[in-house]
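Annotators were shown the component list below and the corresponding predicted structure, then asked to write short factual statements about the assembly.
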Amino acid sequence: MKKTNEKRRIILAVTERSPLRALWRAAKEHLADPHDEIITFVVHDDRWRRAASLPFTREVSRASGRHQDFTQWRAAQIDDETAARLARQLKRIAKHAKRQIAFEILPEANVGDVLEQLTITADVLIVSSELKRRPVYAKLVELRCKLLFVGPEE
Amino acid sequence: MTATSDQIRALAVPVDHLRKVCPPLADQASPADSPLAAASLLSQERAIESLRFAFRVDRDGYNVFVLGPVGSHRHVLAEDLAKERAREKGAPPDWCYVNNFADPEKPRALSLPAGRGTGFRHDMENLIEEVRFAIPAAFEEDDYKNQLKALEEESQKEIQTQWQSLKEMAAADGITVLQTPTGYVLAPVRDGEVIDDEEFDKLPKKERKRIHAAIKHLSDELQQRIEHMPALRKKYHGRLRELNQDVTAHTVKALLEDLKSNYDDLPEVLAYLDSAQQNIIDNAKAFRESDGPTLPFLAQDPSSVFEAYEVNLVVSNEVGASAPVVYEANPGYTNLIGKVEHRAEMGALVTDYRMIRAGALLRANGGYLLLDAHRVLTRPFVWEALKQCLFAKQVRIESPAETLGFVSTTSLQPEPLPLDVKIVMIGERWLYYLLSRYDREFNGLFKIAADFDDDIERSTDNVHAYAQLISHRIREHELLPFSEAAVQRVVEERARHAGDSERLSTHIQSLDDLLVQAEYWARQRKAGRVDNEDITAAIEGSERRFSRVQQRIVDAIQRDTLLIDTSGSCVGQVNGLSVIDLGEYRFGHPVRITATTRVGTGDVVDIEREAKLGGAIHSKGVMILSSALSARYAPEVPLSLHGSIVFEQSYGGVDGDSASVAELCALLSSISRVPIRQSIACTGSINQLGRVQAVGGVNEKIEGYFEVCRERGLDGTHGVVIPRDNVKHLMLRKEIVEAVNTEQFSIYAVQYLDEALVILTGEVPGQRDDDGEFPLGTVNRKVEDQLVRYATKRREFAESAGSHEEDK
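Structure shown to annotators:
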């Protein structure tokens, strides 16, 4: 157990489909000191990489209906764009709340290991509930810190 | 043969003929009521009748040209008469320009009964103000929101149905539809997760082929549905637009119904309101967004949406008012025709129908427009534009460059307005005659000429009328009262201004000047009324201000720079009289005329003409006197004379024939060797029969010579010979009348050349006796004898020259 007078560390694990404001509200409930630390992890969605590994998958343009090969490069680009968008949104929310926030991007395959290390010193891990349906869920429930799932249904 | 004093005295003009004094006025004249009444008093009936006639004939071309000198109050009279008629005609309709929604570059013109234009403009302003708030409010209504929501849901549902069915088709084949930021990816799934290549390779070949085929089929289906999306969106937007238009139309119609009822009697206005209504409905979106922030730079100002419905009232008249009477003092093209103004916007000049401005023609439409002819003719393009408008009976507001086709950029082409105006062009006579002569269209457009007299007869009635006019002018200028003597003096001065003792000048401006200046002198001496002495002070003051040139000439004569003898006698030399006109001031002065003669071939040389300093009339005068000479003397022998005549020390042009008597006398003196008295100056023209004819400026000439003689000292020998026909013109200064009365100065009036010779030579010229001979010793005998001698000499010379040739 940590002493209550020490600064707290709260970890947010989000994906592109996470309800960010709901996650942030949950995090705020556990913040006591202005110096409490928030670390956000964006968990990459492996669907893009897997779909891109197939030689016949093609991306159909929403604007024109034209097809083009869906490649690993395109999958990585979507991941980067998603991460950047989430980062912008979270930073804007944090700035509004006058909080500092750290931001990391993790491939889904590494999420369990990294979180395991971090949660040794973390107080709360707040996770987007849609990760319950992902393989990483099995690892999350084994972590030693307090685990909160946040989503529309929570 | 010396002429007797009786013979000379018989030709002297009696003192009472030198200045016609104004008789006592019966009573203090009551002032005329108006300029028009004053003009009537001045016997300008002919001009007034012409103006009234022109104003009452409502036909094409019955415009009027008012002829008369500057300062004759032509403007005031023409304006008064125009207003008189305008009161009977009533106010013409108002005119306004409105937006042509179908073609904004061609604004439409609307006519409304007088006074209703302003109301229409206000009605449109109020309408737009109401629409501005009513339309956004209508779109805030729950009814609209519900309809909009239903439409959006229906549209959304249709789209969702499309996607849902596709997703279901895909799911049935084990395929998922992933949404990327820009499109869709179809991928196979197992247990809800997308499979990668390793898992895919582990699938049976048949399954892999099925997945391949399913993805291809679904991709094609997806493409088709995506391509169908714009149609769905278009359908949605179309229905949304219909909904918006229905809401707008409902709102606008309700607002316009009331407005339209005000204009039931004006179909054109109703048609415009219909088009405005449709345009508002078509632009409902702009009304809804009109309150948004103005975008910088190229963004259109939202308020401009409403400006398209403003009314540009270019001509406004009041209900029950008279027809307009407009005087345009500066009839430049734009002031007369109108203009389309521009404003600078982002470095470009832009305009619209609201910037159309009416000119004087439109302001006077339905009434009368007064213009100064010389201004119309000297402003570029104005005369042609005015004629074009009158011929076309419409005003097309465009720049001269557009009229001439020099502009290729797009600009407004306002609908021409019908023109029904009476033009009153005011100008001097020479302009009227010039236009009549050289502009073939002029007489067709200006069929009426109103000719103002420069002067009127000095009858008893007219003198009384003139006194009334003077009283009117005194009241008009709010001057001190004038004594009866002062009024009498003014009347006399008006005769002097007319240059005729039997007429009175109708030049109102100079009359006003005299009255105002006299009043100034009265106030200077702190008098309560203007008296005779103030009139004198005003006249002398005016002359003093203008007399620099005259004084320089008198000084030059006194110092013998200009050689003028005023005493003694001299052969072939006479004092003629000349007038210099400085515009506001005219004065006379003596000039020395000399003549020389010798044997010759019968020609008299006009040196002025030879030197190209003589005008045509002067040359004609010399030719006439030459002809008179040959007809009068020795008619049976060839005229064997060579004579020459010159204005000595004259370095400017000489014109007119008023010196021809003096020139002939100098010539006769030279031929006869009879000297001419230098104390006498002479003026008058002569015809071939020796009759002396009237000349102009006789008063100034006498006064000019008198001035020189007075400077040198009057001794009773000085005098002037004038034509008898000019006696009626005499209105000399009082000091000259006094000098004549005391026999210090004389004025002789002659009808024939012989009478002039009596005065100038002091000898009897002689009449032919029964044998046709002039008496011996007379001037005429001496002239004839000399001419016969010249002829003899010439014949002898010719004979000796002939025999000399034969000897050779």
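Statements collected:
1. Chain A has one domain: 9-46+79-150.
2. The first strand of chain A starts at residue 9 and ends at 14.
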